[in-house]
Amino acid sequence: MSALEVTGLTHRFGRATVLEDVSFHVDAGEIVTLIGPNGAGKTTLLNVVSRALPLQKGSVRIADVDTSRHRQAQVVRAGCLLVPEGRQVFASMSVRDNLVLGMYTCPHSDQDDQLGRVFALFPELEPRSRQLSGTLSGGEQQMLAVGRAMVSSPRIMLLDEPSLGLSPQLVERIMGALSQLRDEGLTIVLVEQNAAAALRLADRGYLISTGRVLAEGPCDVLAEDPLVRRVYLGGAPVRSTDDLPRTAGSVTQQAPISVTDSRRPT
Question: At the top level of CATH, which class does the domain 2-253 belong to?
Answer without folding.
Answer: alpha beta
